[in-house]
Amino acid sequence: MTRQKSFKGRIRARMDKTSESYTTARRQLLAKAGSEPPAEPETQPVANWDDGSTRLVIAFSARGQARSQVALTHERIPDAATADRLKPWWRERVADLKRVLEA
Predict the structure, then answer these.
(1) What is the largest CA-CA distance in the chain?
(2) What is the structure's pLDDT at 88?
(3) pLDDT in tens, 54-72
(4) What pTM was estimated for this model as a whole?
(5) Quick check: 4 pLDDT over 90?
(6) Are 71 and 58 in contact (CB under 8 A)?
(7) Which long-range contacts (CB under 8 A, 24 or more apart) does 90-96 make?
(8) Edge-to-edge strand order for the sheet containing 54-62?
(9) Where are the domains of the chain?
């Protein structure tokens, strides 16, 4: 099912009325509503973990003028027990990163 079907309908109606491209019409409607389009990840470094058996993917996204978002994905974890053990470790590392960035 299409997400935001009514909004997409408004975009297409504006396209018909103004002959704008889909992207331009969408941007104009979002600006009129005082909203920003969702930010796309700007960079996405990928690193192999120690022996290369797992991989860490980091995505950074801008969230306005003075904010950003970091998303971490630890891929190819061998089993659920290892994942459960790593969750608190990652939670602590992200909290440490937040403290450093906010200092």
Answers:
(1) 58
(2) 93
(3) 888 887 777 778 888 888 8
(4) 0.48
(5) no
(6) yes
(7) 94/70
(8) 46-49, 54-62, 68-75
(9) 1-37, 46-102
User: 19-56 burial, b if ≥16 CB within 10 A, otherwise e?
Assistant: eeeeeebbeeeeeeeeeeeeeeeeeeeeeeeeeeebee
Closest by CA to 90, choosing from 57, 51, 42, 41, is 57
Structure tokens at 24: 């331009």
Tell me which long-range contacts 69-72 makes (C-beta under 8 A, separation of at least 24): 69/39, 70/94, 70/97, 71/41
Q: To which residue do tokens 């969750």 refer?
A: 87
Measured in residues, the chain has a length of 103
Q: 90 Cβ partners below 8 Å, 6+ apart?
A: 72, 74
State the Cα–Cα distance between residues 24 and 20, nearest whole angstrom: 6
Tell me the three state secondary structure of residue 103.
coil
Helix (H) or strand (E) holding 82: helix 80-102
Between CA 65 and CA 61 the distance in angstroms is: 11
